[in-house]
Structure formats: structure tokens, C-alpha cells
Amino acid sequence: MSNSPLVVYTKLSPNHSGQRTHGIDRITPHCVVGQLSCERICDCFPAGRGASCNYGIGTDGRISLCVEEKNRSWCSSSNANDQRAVTIECSSDKTAPYAMTDAVYAALIDLCTDICKRNGKKKLLWFGDKDKTLSYEPKADEMIITVHRWFANKSCPGDWLYNRLGDLAAKVTSRLGGETPQPSPSGTLYRVQTGAYKNKANADLQLAKVKAAGFDTYMVKAGGLYKIQVGAYSKKENADNMAAKLKAAGFDTYITTEKGEAVSSSGTAAASLSVGDKVKLDANAPVYGGTSKFASWVYSSTLYLRELNGNRAVISTQKTGAVTGAVDKKYLKKI
Which residue of 140, 228, 244, 276 is most buried, as measured by CB atoms within 10 A? Predict the structure, then answer.
């Protein structure tokens, strides 16, 4: 099994499970949550980190190799998925909807096309539905797209890329000479809205509340208002189901087809914490966005606060260089 000839930089991470137990028939693109170079993406996966990916795409579109394609990376919070998926970390903004540069998206199309060709695939498929995708057995000439949010409580790959996965599949399939999947008759996407505000500060507060309740949400601006939305569904029934979940969590909802312009939240840090501070980690703190714990030594170490975006705090044992991971800031104590 070969690696992509599009790679311009290689730094192999030790974080993998060895050779795959399943043939490659999936591609899982991720958002790396940072506008990083392809070299810096590889630096994110030192020994002991507990994470890795097969390929990284830097903000300028250059591609790196972090784990050889023949090996199973640790990327999607799912052994079953990663055994059969080529995983790709893509440079992105640090806040929702985790937008990517044109160069990253173009390189992703090129890389997916190359992966499909080398693995004998003529079609890249995107169903946009977890249950349908995971129950589908691809034909010998088919590759399917899966996403991290299906296996963990994360927004990855972010709504910017998630809403383009149909386009990605169509463009790759066209290059492969296969039959391009037909778009839905209307092309309409249904979004569940939980608020619309003239004042952005009020929108930021609502965004934080919806996120704290466990929903993947984002902010757009349309008609002079800041609007908090969840999802973008090709089937209205899926939007109805999400609206019901939000209502059960105490939010008023409204289903709209209005897209709007993506807006980043303010994400201001708590007054007691600043980037560069020395901190200690609470003994009960889980890794951000999940329930897994850090290695035991992390809890007894003096750490540095490297990044702070909303509640998401990136920590490290070093002032510069490799990071240890991310945690909710409420679990940090300044020392």
C-alpha cells in the first residue's frame, strides 16, 4: 500500500495501531482548529498524545504525511472507522464554522482523488446521514465519506466543510470518471434557528448556552441580525428532529432555509486566566468535548495555558512547541 505522491513533508508519528485490519473504503476529513502549516500539523502528534492522522493539509494547501496510509491512525474516536478510513486533518479557523482557505479545499479535492485512484475507487460518496452511511457496504469501486462528529460529541469537521462534502464527493467522482451522484431536487438546506439578535453580545451568550447544552451550533449574520443556528439538513424531517431535541433542552426554535454569512463568536477569556499562565488541571477533568481522561502524569504537572477560545483551553507542559491537549477552562486553576 503506497502513500500519496502529493506529500511534500513527512514526519511520522508513533501514534498508530500498526497495519489496518480492513481495506480502505472511507475517507474522514477533519478540521484541525488552527491555521497551521503542514509541518505544524505533524508536530501536533508527539508520543503520548493519543492522537494522530494519516495526512495533514496546511493553510497554504501543502500536504504532509503523519501516519503511513497502510496504518490505522488515531483520529476519529472510532477504531472501526479508523481501521478503514484515510484520515485527513485540514487547517481551519479556530472558531465555528471552522472555515478553511481555498488552498486547503483545493488540496483536499486533489488528495481525495489521489487516495481513491491508488485504492482502485471510481466514486466518492457522501450520504449526509450517519445511519445510512455506517450501514452501507461500499462496492469494490466506491469510497464513502464519514465525519468525526458521528463518533464523538464534537463539531468536527465544522459546518464550513460539512456543508461542502456533497460538492467534494461530486468533484472527486467527476475527476475519477465515475457517475457523479445527483443532488437533491431542490438543493435546499433546512437550518434550526434558536435566536436572532441585533446585539452581537446577546448572540454570543445564546451561542454559548446552546453549546453548553451539547449541541453543535454556529452564528450567521443575515438581514442585519446575528442568528444562532444548528445543522444544515437536506431533509426537513431531520431538521424537525433536531428542533424537537432543542425544544426538549429548553430552547425556542424556528426552521429556516436562510443561510447568512458566517460570523465568529467573541470567545473572550475569563478574567482570571490568560494565555501564558501557569495552571494546574483538576483531577476530574476530561479531554475537551469528550469523556476520556488525560494520561495520569498530566494531572500532577505544572502546565502552561497556550490558547484560549471561549471555554476551550489548550494546555502544554511547554511554553512553546508541542501541546498536550484541550480542556474546558473551568477545570484549570491559575498558579
Answer: 228
